[in-house]
User: Which sequence fits this backbone?
């Protein structure tokens, strides 16, 4: 095969996403590929952009702030925050990112709303669900009072716009082990969607990483977050 390694990797990931979609009777166009670019240098992010990738995921405010000047001028590129966000960094996150996928408390959602209001922007956000109910893990527990507080709050907001759910399931080397968590997220999404809450959309299901994105697509992912399978092993 010709082209750079990143180019080949992206082509392969896209093919695997499409094949998984077809297996599940889904249209491959319904699934968006996010290249997770945390720890990756700007020039390699530009290389992925040149291969047609427009959506990138970063997990640290400070790291992305440092890289962002070197990433200017990528027309149409969107950068999403997918890592744990402390409230004292929410203002910077709102000014740097096109979306925050890791919102896991009503307090954080409310902070994002006020910073987005100050800037007079609408910021799409996802609610991160701790599907495995793991201690020490980011995300709000499914069926929890905190999730209910977040949904009730979301219905009142004018600037932070809830678009769906995100999860990082418990890690297992066997991708099949993640299936039940992906299914759980889809079922939760369907249950919330049925309630028709004002200003709450449940269109986005962000789930699946390098080792399990095909299973996630089979279970209904509309966005997969792939780092290693595109950029190779991370140095740190
Ligand atoms: C790092 C990361 C990914 C991508 O992980 P890979 O295994 O490298 O594909 C996806 N989602 C989140 C939240 C991450 O932090």
Assistant:
């Amino acid at each position: 095969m010709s082209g750079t390694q990143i180019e080949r990797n992206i082509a392969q990931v896209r093919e695997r996403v499409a094949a998984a979609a077809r297996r599940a009777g889904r249209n491959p166009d319904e699934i968006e590929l996010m290249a997770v670019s945390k720890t990756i240098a700007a020039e390699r992010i530009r290389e992925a952009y040149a291969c047609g990738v427009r959506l990138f995921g970063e997990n640290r405010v400070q790291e992305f702030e440092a890289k962002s000047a070197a990433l200017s001028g990528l027309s149409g590129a969107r950068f999403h925050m997918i890592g744990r966000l402390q409230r004292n960094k929410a203002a910077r996150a709102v000014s740097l990112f096109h979306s925050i996928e890791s919102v896991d408390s009503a307090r954080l959602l409310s902070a994002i709303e006020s910073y987005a209001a100050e800037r007079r922007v609408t910021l799409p956000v996802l609610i991160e669900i701790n599907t495995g109910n793991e201690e020490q893990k980011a995300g709000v527990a499914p069926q929890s009072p905190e999730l209910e507080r977040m949904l009730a709050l979301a219905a009142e907001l004018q600037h932070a716009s809830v678009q769906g759910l995100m999860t990082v399931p418990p890690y297992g080397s066997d991708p099949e082990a993640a299936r039940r968590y992906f299914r759980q997220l889809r079922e939760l999404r369907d249950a919330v969607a049925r309630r028709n809450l004002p200003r709450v959309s449940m269109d986005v299901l962000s789930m699946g990483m390098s080792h399990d994105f095909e299973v996630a697509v089979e279970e209904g992912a509309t966005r997969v977050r792939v780092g290693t399978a595109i950029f190779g092993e991370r140095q740190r």
Notes: The mean pLDDT is 97. Residues 36, 38, 59, 82-83, 168, 209-210, 225-229 surround pyridoxal-5'-phosphate (CB under 6 Å). The CA atoms of residues 24 and 87 lie 39 Å apart.
